[in-house]
Amino acid sequence: MAMDEVAVLGAGMHPWGKWGRNFVEYGVKAARDALNDAGVDWKDVGFVAGGETIRNGYPGFVSGASIASALGFNGAHVGSSYGACASGCQAISMARAQILSGMTDVALVVGADTTPKGFFAPTGGNRTDDPDWLRFRLLGATNPVYFGLYARRRMELYGDTVEDFANVKVKNSQCGAQNPNARYPKAFNIDDVFASPMVSDPLRLLQICATSDGGAALVLTSMEYARKHATDPVRIKGVSTVTPQYPNTNIEMPDFAGDSAFAVAQPGVSYRDSIALRAYEQAGLGPEEMSMAEVYDLSSALELDWVEAIGLCQPGEAAKLLREGDLSLGGRIPVNPSGGLGAFGEAIPAQAIAQVCELVWQIRGEARGRQVENAKAGVTANMGLFGHGSSVVVSA
Amino acid sequence: MSKTRTPAIDGWFKDGPNPALIGTQCTSCHSIFFPPERTFCRNPACMNDEFSDKELSRSGKLWSYTTNNYQPPAPFVSPKEEYEPFAVAAVELADEKMIVLGQVPAHIPVEQLEAGMEMELVVDTLFEDDDNEYVVWKWRPV
């Protein structure tokens, strides 16, 4: 069932890095840039959707109202949402629902965060009822442990190699080096990757995304409003925030086990595959109509899982696409032309929004130095701790 | 004075000569859960809230594995003053049709692991304090 569209009139970012300042500052900078880009006055915004900051696996500081306050309270309705890494997509979804229901014509979506150094770690204390605490305590299972398990599984199941995984990093860093909002300006080569220390075998430091400070924002409007303000706006055609279907037999963060398929058979479509599928269904578009994709490269190897999950090829074929250059700029379907998380690092509530910003700039032809030729439509994919899907389909 | 051998978490595994993970099974739809689910059945088609404990298979096939080359943050506690890297295994239990994670004892290097190999459950030291040796389940090659 195709859904009605909303327009993206503006996109903005605060450059990502390790700035150490309050997240509100990044959010306001991104929001003001998005409003300027849209040519929309802040006082016309009727709804502010904030992606919640994350602290120790759980919601941190209040985002929507804090950023609205810093922009100067204008009386708009407000909502903040938490979906871990999918928080930004939930904010987009919430804003879209407000617009499509006629509650408002103009919504501001914003996400920003400041992250501590090092591994993401759980809240302190003795929290034996918290799976996110227990996985560190009983298993020492950091996020890179899960990334390492998925990467090794690809090697065993599909014959992917450590060179394939390293080449994902090389590919994305070349784009990231051209992106003024990315944190890492360096284009790495394969020797750089192999010279970096092993973290979670087979993944090395340069293949695991960092934790960053940054912000991203979008101005979304009804199509009717957009027609009065822009000649040909980029449109959001599908937004997916789906949960898994029981039993999800894969091992997901922060779990100790996959669901058992003893009594109930696995669903026909796996959880990861279902995330973009639901967005495609709303859009009335499929993977064959996409010009590019922004996917969740928490690790270089994980990008290949997503390439398959969003339907760009059959399971097990992503490394072949990579080797043939299909996923590079100039290839059949460039993936992570922004540079991806490998070049940005995680600023969790901002990243699903940042993925959409990139697609918007690409479709407008404004992605200087990393422009996808003839960019008409794109898909994003992302997933948050505890079962939060995130996918957006955007088109000209 | 010897230390008391104490499970690092209550009710998740059985110590002793025949150690096993303790899961639960829904008395209505027979779905199996680990960690043990004892409140409401998570099968969306089942409204039952009664479970029986079920010892899970003591061995299975290595689905995937990785390492922790750097010390994880708290609440992880290193059993030794100087952190020793260890592997983490994901083991597929054929009867239960599920994959369960566990540490691999630190003296077993990652080079000894190979996907598809048979792994068995052991109970081993997680860390110690002045009075207790805290133990947890781990997977090791058969």
Characterize the structure shown:
The complex is a heterodimer of chains A (396) and B (142). Chain A has 396 residues and is α+β, with helices and mostly antiparallel strands. Chain A folds into two domains: 6-118 and 214-235, Peroxisomal Thiolase, Chain A, domain 1; 131-207 and 237-395, Thiolase/Chalcone synthase (Peroxisomal Thiolase, Chain A, domain 1, 3-Layer(aba) Sandwich). Helices cover 36% and strands 19% of the residues of chain A. Chain A is built from 13 helices and 13 strands. Chain B has 142 residues and is an all-beta fold. Chain B has a domain at 58-141. Helices cover 0% and strands 46% of the residues of chain B. Chain B is built from no helices and ten strands. Chain B has a six-stranded mixed sheet with strand order 1-10-9-6-7-8, with no helix packed on it. In chain B, strands 2, 3, 4 and 5 form a four-stranded antiparallel sheet that branches. Chain B is globular, with a radius of gyration of 16 Å. The chains are: A alpha+beta (396), B mainly beta (142). At the A-B interface, helix 4, helix 5 and strand 7 of A face strand 4, strand 6, strand 7 and strand 8 of B.
